[in-house]
Amino acid sequence: MTNHESSINHYDVIVVGGGQSGVTMSYYLQQAGLSHLVLEKNTLFHGWKNERWDSFTLVTPNWQCDLPGLPYDGNDPKGFMTGKQTIEWLDRFGKSVDAPVKEGVTVQHVFKTRDDTYKVETSQGLFSANQIVVASGGYHLPIIPRMAEKIPKSVHQIHSANYKNSKQLPEGNVLVVGSGQSGAQIAEDLHLDGRKVFLATGNAPRVARFYRGKDVVEWLEDMGYYQMSVKEHSLGENVRQNTNHYVTGRDGGRDIDLRKFATEGMELFGLMTDYNDGKLEFELDLNENLNKADDTYNNINARIDAWIEQQGIQVDEEPSRYSPVWQPEAERGALNLEESGITSIIWCIGFKPGFEWLNAPVFNGQGHPQHDRGVTSEPGLYFIGLPWLYTWGSGRFSGVKNDAQYLIEFIADYQKRKNLKNIDQTQKATESAVVA
C-alpha cells in the first residue's frame, strides 16, 4: 500500500456497525469535527429490516424513541411503532445524519500497531484509525444448540432471527423454544394465526403493559429505573446477563400471559434439555418458571404502588395482584415428537457475541467486552449499543443517544492529545534535522 493510499484510508475514528448506535455515533463525530468512517457488513439498519417478524412492534412506547436530531414526531407518542414504521423512522434518521458509511464491508481483523494506530482489515481493503468504536451490538451469532442436530431432518428448524410469519412454516404444529421477548411474541403470533403451539419456557420474567392508568414503562421512567447505572444495580455487572421481560406493543399494547394461552390450547413445558429416542426432553420446572415470571410482574406493580403512595399521586385504579388463570396439572418431562404433530421448531434462545475479529485484551471468559460505560482499558477503543452499557435505558433509542454523548467527550479528548503528541514529535524531528 502506498503512502497516498494510506492517507486516504486513515481516519480519526472508524465505527464498526451501521445500526442506530453507529449512525448516532457518526452524528456526534460530525459535530466534533472528527474524520470518521462507518463500516457496515450489510446495509444500514439491517437487523431492523431483515431480522424481525412481520407482526413485530416495539415493546417500548414511541415517546422513548429519541435519536439525535430526530425525536419521535408522530401523532401517537404513547403507542408502539410497527416494524415498518420503525424502519421508516430510522431511514429518515439515517438520511438526516448522512453518515460517511461503506456498506457491504465485512471487518475481518482489527489490531493495534506499536505506534498506537488501529489497523482494520476488511473485505474491501485495509483502513486505519486512531480510535475504534464498536457499534455492532451484542447479538451476533444465533444460538441453536447442538441437540438440534439429533432431531430428524424432516422437522423444519429456524432461529427467531429468520422467522417472518406462520406461512413460511410447513403445515403442522410448531415448537417454540424459549419464552423471552422474541419467544413469547412469536408464540403469540403463531397462536393468533391458528397454529397449534408447544412452548418450552425458560426463566424470563414478565411485566404488565398497563397498570393503574399508565404504561408500566412510563411509571418506571418516572421512578428513575431507566437512569439507574449498572454500578447502582444490586446485581452489578451481572445484570447485563438478565433476560428482558416479556410483554408486547401489538394492537396498542397488552400483557403476554402464557397461562391464558394454555387455557386456549397452547401446550407449555419447562426448559428443553435434549432430544433422544424420538422424544423431546424437558426440565420439570414449568410451574417454577410461570410462578417466577408472575412474581416479577407483581413485584414491579407493588413498587409502582409504593411510588404512588410515596408521591401522593392521585389515580383512579386501586392496587391489584395478578392471580393465575391456569395451573399445570402435572409436569411433563418428555414429548413424543411424532405423536405431537410438530413439524417445525423455532429456536428463540438468543444470540452469543462474535468479536473474534477484534484483537484486544478487553474480553471476559464468555467473550463479552469489559468496559466502563463503553470505555475499555485499551486506549482508543470503545463500545456502544450493548445491553446495560451503562443503564437499563442503554438498550433503548434514547439511551443510545445518551451513551454516545458520553463517549464523544472521551473520543474528542483522546484525539486532541493525539494531535498534540504528533505536533510535538514533528517539532522534535524538525529541530533534529536543523541541528544535523
Automatic annotation (TrEMBL):
InterPro entries: Auxin_biosynth/cation_transpt, CHP04046_FMN-dependent, FAD/NAD-bd_sf. It comes from the Bacteria. This is MSMEG_0569 family flavin-dependent oxidoreductase. The lineage of its organism: Bacteria, Pseudomonadati, Pseudomonadota, Gammaproteobacteria, Cellvibrionales. Keywords: Oxidoreductase.
